[in-house]
Specification:
The chain has 12 helices and 20 strands. It has 400 residues and is of the alpha/beta class.
Length: 400
């Protein structure tokens, strides 16, 4: 599977936090410290590559010259520069391409050539996206894009729009353009992803919420989680949060005002967090993540990676029944395309599936903790970071 497509809540390098360790020296914690601790090199998402290619192509369309390298600004403020692999300027438009570097992540799109072709549109048209060769089209509901749309996810679209606006403002243009994103051999590469099962046909998705690919190594990342717990405890913190990615991290910070040093980049390793906290307790643990990922925890999976666990829609249908869903709704949930579609069906019917998933996930977490004196609460978020489910008020695990 494409490493970027692990779930709705894409991971990315955050800002480093700090604290003072028990030994008297400065100990760094937080998600960036975890990444540094793994010794693995991060890379760039297909969305970042498409944004760079679009920026270069539109600049050339307006000026006749391709900036090479081309710099872009990512959501967390990083300003990477990308070398152009291809460039072409014609009377019809401009095209540029960037080779994706996934860093040390075992990403099937590493080395893929991501292209963007930009053409002028009539005034007032805005920015229109098209799927070129190797980029898929959405054919089923349940994704954050409408059926029929090119599989260019919302954050990459926003980034490309922002950079088009910036270039347009610099050169006095209107910014009304058509952007066609393509990936060389993308349809072939997509056979190694879950796109076909999700109804994304014809190629890859253009993904990324931070622009950064966090390298994936089970042993290195689990070790970094343990180090994060140790640093937080040494700094005297009593409340830590295991987050599946940057979106859920922002939600936890907004909810509780936690410092960076309290944030554990859990990623897919829910079991690693719970087992280590069982042996090295803190007063309170918040688990926050995308609804689909946490539905896997609710179903008893401790490894949330899509290669090793899938969203169990019949399980969600059973939960929904406990929340008042009738058999017709339960049947639709059981055959939904994605967890997000199941959630939206329940929201429309007034069935609190998000809360039910959060509560069951908390039960599973407490089971793994085996009586350790840790209060647990679970928060489920959607792709935008909105809270869609909460467990009951946290209480200390053990006899009540």
């Amino acid at each position: 599977m494409d490493a970027e497509a692990r779930g709705a809540d894409d991971s990315g390098a955050g800002t480093a936090g700090g604290g003072t360790g028990a030994a008297g020296g400065e100990a760094r914690g937080g998600r960036s410290a975890q990444l540094k601790h793994t010794g693995l090199r991060p890379g760039w998402t297909t969305g970042a590559c498409a944004t760079a290619a679009t920026t270069a192509a539109y600049t050339a369309l307006l000026t006749g010259d391709f900036p090479d390298p081309v710099s872009i600004t990512l959501p967390k403020g990083q300003t990477p520069a990308f070398a152009l692999a291809v460039e072409e300027l014609t009377p019809q438009g401009a095209s540029a391409g960037v080779v994706k570097d996934a860093g040390d992540d075992p990403d099937v799109t590493h080395g893929a050539l991501v292209r963007s072709t930009v053409r002028r549109l009539p005034p007032g048209s805005g920015v229109v996206f098209r799927a070129g060769p190797g980029v898929g089209t959405v054919t089923l509901p349940g994704l954050p894009l409408d059926v029929g749309e090119p599989a260019v996810n919302p954050v990459p679209r926003r980034l490309m729009r922002e950079h088009v606006e910036r270039v347009a403002a610099e050169h006095g243009a209107a910014g009304d353009v058509e952007i066609t994103v393509s990936v060389d051999h993308g349809e072939e590469i997509a056979r190694s992803t879950w796109n076909g099962r999700l109804g994304i046909l014809g190629g890859l998705s253009i993904l990324g919420t931070t622009g950064v690919v966090v390298p994936y190594s089970c042993s290195a990342w689990i070790d970094s989680i343990r180090r994060g717990v140790d640093v937080a405890r040494a700094a005297g913190l009593t409340h830590v949060a295991g987050c599946t990615g940057s979106t859920s991290e922002r939600t936890v910070v907004a909810e509780y005002g936690l410092p960076d040093i309290a944030l554990l980049d859990m990623g897919d390793f829910a079991g690693a967090v719970l087992k280590y906290v069982r042996r090295h307790p803190v007063d309170r643990l918040t688990v926050c993540g995308g609804f689909a990922k946490l539905s896997k925890l609710a179903a008893g999976h401790l490894d949330l990676h899509s290669a090793r666990s899938q969203v169990d829609k019949p399980f969600l249908a059973g939960l929904a029944r406990t929340g008042g869903a009738d058999e017709e709704l339960a049947s639709r949930i059981a055959t939904a395309n994605t967890g997000l579609e199941a959630l939206r069906l329940c929201e429309a019917a007034g069935v609190p599936l998000g809360d039910l998933v959060a509560a069951r996930a908390r039960d599973e977490a407490l089971s793994v903790l085996r009586g350790a004196p840790v209060a647990v609460d679970v928060i489920c978020v959607d792709r935008a970071g909105a809270v869609v489910g909460r467990s009951v008020r946290p209480s200390v695990n053990g006899p009540t």
